Amino acid sequence: MRDVEIVPSVLPADFASLGAECARLGAAGVDRIQWDVMDGNFVPNLTFGPDVIKACRSHTDVMFEAHLMVTDPDLLAEAYVDAGCDMLIVHAETSTHLHRTLANVRTLGAKPAVALNPSTPPEAVEHVLDLVDMVLVMTVNPGFGGQAYLASMEPKIEAIRTRLDARGLDVDLEVDGGISADTIAGAANAGANVFISGSALFRYPTLAEGVSDLRQRAEAAR
Ligand code: DX5
User: Fold this and answer.
1) CA 20 to chain centre
2) What residues contact 216, with CB distance under 8 A and at least 6 apart?
3) What are 78-92's pLDDT values in tens digits?
4) Which range marks the domain in which residue 101 is found?
5) CATH number assigned to the domain comprising residue 63
6) Total-model pTM
């Protein structure tokens, strides 16, 4: 069984105080922090450039991962690694040469991960599973927080976990979108072990309570 990891999206955080928000998330016991990087092209929203992340890097020791919802990840990869991101998540839908893009992330010194939009089948990543530290199965259509969890993604989660285990690959499986107290058990039961939560986590009375409750619910479901 792989460790459960609770990872906040900073989309619901106070954008006027992102450094302090990162410190607050670290103090709440999150396992890492996800930056939803959006270029206004691959998804209809625009968020964090590398300089914003760089400015927050010194506010916490927690690992940063950049979810690159961008049309050209090769163009931006080095800047996000230099900004202090330890992992880069590249969408399978954005790379003409996904195998080379992921290998380049490792060459840059970061951990490569690959993401699948809801309509993208597991087969799209079959030939790069050996290159990544993590697979992200989107449980919403990317672009915005606060959307409803797509339970229809659970068979895909299960299929990818089965493929990883069958090949003996040491790879985490992350889910992102609509993860809350009500939905985390379904995703965990299907085989996910890393859980992105944004709006649901920030709705708890305290972040620490949210991290603890989500972690317990995920562990109980496996
Ligand atoms: C979508 C984003 C969101 C976010 C989490 O592009 O990736 O999924 O991280 O948002 P919530 O937890 O509010 O659904």
Assistant:
1) 21
2) none
3) 999 999 999 999 999
4) 5-221
5) 3.20.20.70
6) 0.98
